[in-house]
C-alpha cells in the first residue's frame, strides 16, 4: 500500500458507509467515521456523531476531524435518508424535505467545512455516493432519486470549480443491499398487497474497491465523473 491516507467518511452508521470505513481502517488508513447513529459494532476506527442537517454539528465534526487526522486526503459522503418511499404524488412534503436536507444540503454543509482545507493542501479526493435512481426512474423513489440527482450535479460542479487545485470530486453509484433497499421492498409490498419481484442485490462490499481506488493517487486523473460500481 502507498502512504496511509487521512479519510473522513460521513454517513458511516450502517450500510456502505460503515463497510467502507471498516475496510479503509483495516487497510491501514487513518479514518474518522461519522453519522447520526450510534457507533457501529466492530468498527476499527474513531467515530464521531454528526448531524449533517445542523451547521453547528458539521462545524464541530470538521474540527474534530482536523484535530484527529491532521492532513485530510479523502472525504466520502454517504449520508442519506431512507424515507419518502411512496408514490410520487402521495409523498409527504415534510418527508421530501428531510430527504433533500440530508442528501443535498448536508453535502453542501460538509463541503463548506472541508473543501477550504483541501484546497489549501493542494490535494484531496471527494467521493459522493450517488444512485442509479438519480438517472433512471424507480417506482416509489421519486424524491430519493431527485435528491441524489441534485447531489450528483453538485459534486460534478465541485469538480469543475476545483479544477487545477489538486482536489478531485467524483460520484459512485452503488446497487447494494441497504436500509433503503429493504424499506423500498417493504413499502412496495404493502402498497401492492403482495411481495414484489426484485433482482438480487449484491452485498455492499462489492462496491468498496471502486471507492477505495478513487480515494488514492492512482485515480488522480479522474474527476467530475459518475461511475456505477456494479449493476444488479
Automatic annotation (TrEMBL):
<protein>
    <submittedName>
        <fullName>SDR family oxidoreductase</fullName>
    </submittedName>
</protein>
<dbReference type="InterPro" id="IPR002347">
    <property type="entry name" value="SDR_fam"/>
</dbReference>
<keyword id="KW-0560">Oxidoreductase</keyword>
<dbReference type="Pfam" id="PF00106">
    <property type="entry name" value="adh_short"/>
</dbReference>
<keyword id="KW-0521">NADP</keyword>
<dbReference type="InterPro" id="IPR036291">
    <property type="entry name" value="NAD(P)-bd_dom_sf"/>
</dbReference>
<dbReference type="InterPro" id="IPR020904">
    <property type="entry name" value="Sc_DH/Rdtase_CS"/>
</dbReference>
<comment type="similarity">
    <text>Belongs to the short-chain dehydrogenases/reductases (SDR) family.</text>
</comment>
Amino acid at each position: 500500500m502507498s502512504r496511509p491516507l487521512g479519510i473522513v467518511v460521513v454517513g458511516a452508521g450502517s450500510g456502505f458507509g460503515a463497510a467502507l470505513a471498516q475496510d479503509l481502517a483495516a487497510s491501514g488508513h487513518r479514518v474518522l467515521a461519522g453519522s447520526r447513529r450510534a457507533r457501529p459494532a466492530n468498527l476499527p476506527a474513531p467515530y464521531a456523531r454528526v448531524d449533517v442537517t445542523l451547521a453547528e454539528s458539521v462545524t464541530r465534526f470538521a474540527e474534530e476531524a482536523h484535530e484527529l487526522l491532521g492532513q485530510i486526503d479523502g472525504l466520502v459522503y454517504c449520508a442519506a435518508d431512507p424515507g419518502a418511499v411512496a408514490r410520487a404524488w402521495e409523498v409527504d412534503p415534510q418527508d421530501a424535505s428531510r430527504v433533500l436536507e440530508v442528501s443535498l444540503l448536508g453535502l453542501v454543509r460538509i463541503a463548506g467545512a472541508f473543501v477550504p482545507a483541501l484546497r489549501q493542501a493542494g490535494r484531496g479526493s471527494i467521493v459522493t455516493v450517488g444512485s442509479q435512481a438519480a438517472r433512471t426512474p424507480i417506482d416509489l423513489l421519486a424524491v430519493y432519486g431527485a435528491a441524489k440527482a441534485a447531489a450528483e450535479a453538485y459534486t460534478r460542479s465541485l469538480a469543475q470549480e476545483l479544477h487545477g487545485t489538486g482536489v478531485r470530486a467524483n460520484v459512485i453509484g452503488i446497487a447494494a443491499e441497504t436500509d433503503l433497499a429493504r424499506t423500498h421492498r417493504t413499502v412496495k409490498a404493502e402498497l401492492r398487497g403482495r411481495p414484489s419481484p426484485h433482482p438480487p442485490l449484491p452485498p455492499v462490499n462489492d462496491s468498496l474497491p471502486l471507492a477505495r481506488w478513487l480515494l488514492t493517487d492512482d485515480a488522480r486523473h479522474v474527476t467530475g465523473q459518475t461511475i456505477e460500481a456494479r449493476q444488479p
